[in-house]
Each structure stands twice: as C-alpha cells, then as structure tokens.
Design a protein that fits this description.
The chain is of the alpha/beta class. The chain has twelve helices and ten strands. Strand 1 and strand 2 form a beta hairpin.
Amino acid sequence: MQYAPLGRTGMTVSRYALGTMMFGSAGNTDHDECTRIVHTALEAGINFVDTADMYSTGESERIVGAALRGRRDDVILATKGHFALEEGLNRSGNSRRHLLNAVDASLRRLGTDWIDLYQVHRPDWSTDLEETLGVLTDLVREGKIRAFGCSTFPAHELVESHRVAEARGLMRFRTEQPPYNLLARGIERDVLPVAERWGMGVLTWSPLGFGFLTGHHRAGAADSARARLRPAWFDPENPEVARKLAVAEQLAQVADDLGRPLPALATAFPLAHRAVTSVITGVRTLEQLDATLKHVDLVLDDATLDRLDAIVPPGTDVYDPQSPMPLPWLTDPALRRRTAATG
C-alpha cells in the first residue's frame, strides 16, 4: 500500500481509501460482513475510512464506529454532513445551526471523541461561506474535528472559500472530494488545478463511473445488481448510455492488454493525476474489496495514459457526473434571465 500527505494537514493517508456508502440499508445490511470489510482493509494497509451521516441515514456511521473500536488511533476517519436525515426546517445545509448538530450526532454514532476530516457534503448556496468556515473553524478549536474539507464543489467556489478564509482570518477547506473517473474527466480543467494550487488534498469518488467501468457492461450486456435495480440507467437504446458503453468497451481493451480487469484500470486512473491524494473505493461486499486489493500495485505508465487520453481526451466528460446535483443557476430560469420588468 502506498501513502501520501493529506494536503497540508500533516496527516498521511493510504492512496486507496475505504468508502462506506454501501454499508447498511442502502447496500449491505449484514453488519458483521461490513465489519470484516473494515478489518480486512486495515490489515491490507488502508488507514483512511470515509463515511457520511446520510449514508443509510446514519447506519453506515454506526457500523464504522463499531468496527473501529480498539483501532481508532490507527485510522484517519472522515465523515460528511449537509443533507437532511429527517424532515423539518433547518435540518440540512451548511449553516452554523445545522453543522453543530450534525457533528455532535456523527460523533455519537461513530463512538469517537474526534473526527479527523469533516467535510461539507455539498455546497449550500443559501448560506454565506463565512458562516460555514466560521463554525468549522470553531469545531477545530474545540477539538471535535481535526481538519475540514468539502465535497463536489465547483472550482469558483473553492477559490471563493479561500478568499473568504484569508479575509476573515478563518481556517480553510483542506480537502475536496469530487467525482472523477475515466468517463468523467471534467475536473481536470479547473477543480484539480485549483486544488493543487491551494495545497488541498483531493479524494476522488465514483472511480467505476456509477457501474459502467465494472466490466459487467461490455458489448451492451448489463449484468449487475445495479443494472437489474435500475435498468433504464443501462438501456443501450438511450444514446447517452450507448456512448458510455462504447467508450467502456474501448477502455476494457486497454485493461485486457495490461492483463488487468477493467475495475483495476479504472481505480488506478485517478491516482495518476498529480493533484489526487486518494481514490475512494466504495465496496459492498468482502469479495469486491478482495478484488480491489489484488491490484493496488497497478501504476499506469505514460504509454497507457496516452492510450486513455486518445479514448477520452483530458478535461472531457462522457457523461455529466453532476447531473444528480444540478447547479441552481442552470436549472432555475429566474437566476439566468432578465425579466421584462427589470430590463
């Protein structure tokens, strides 16, 4: 297992991080197997575990907390907050009110006195960045969190956050967690250069492109639990899906030529970028983890990266990884159109 500095936090993390989004009702309901996954990852040298309060509505955090009992000091533990876990006003977002409650609730579920890396899970366009950075700074000073970061922020919001931190004397986001894979390379245009310029750690998610890089969808044959659950996602009659399948077929040929499975190629790809610290591998079963661990030695050489660039040019997206969380100024006409009344 290889390790890298987590930005400029002073912490060192494994280049493969264990993602736990599939722990609990959203994926694997067998808590014992989830615990074995955590322990197997630690024994393989993974010291970075990433979860979030909204994963299975807190169940993932409880599983992770129980699995780390007696081993907490060996792990860099990351979690996230932003989304609502229950209905009601003021129960989501990046406000002081919500984040104070969310951090305390995560600490209880995780059974720990501190969180190594706390991340705001998405931008909150209704809350001033000074408000968010202010409460996160206070939480560091209280000792509840060691450092804080953000997830899926656009580049301009990263720049603005650093400007606000400098102007107000606040601590700043130390990490960014964006989606990044062989089918979604758009962040190479701006997010990754901005993160590198500011010395931020980058923890990428979705290395398998929401299932299209698992190797189960070659030649248009969708054979996976996700495809059976959401067949429309993998409908080859859909032009966008057909494009993804065609590109995945070309990428699979590169993997075949390397003598590696496609998921190994896909998971190694984000780590080839100089700005990326760790790739988050969100496994559901112990078998999936074992398959990942077999190929952590894979380092892509220049010749392979050139072939990948020819298939998916740098900075381009075969699909929009942000589509589940669209930007409000693109989806709300009132934010991008002048009305007749205002001229």
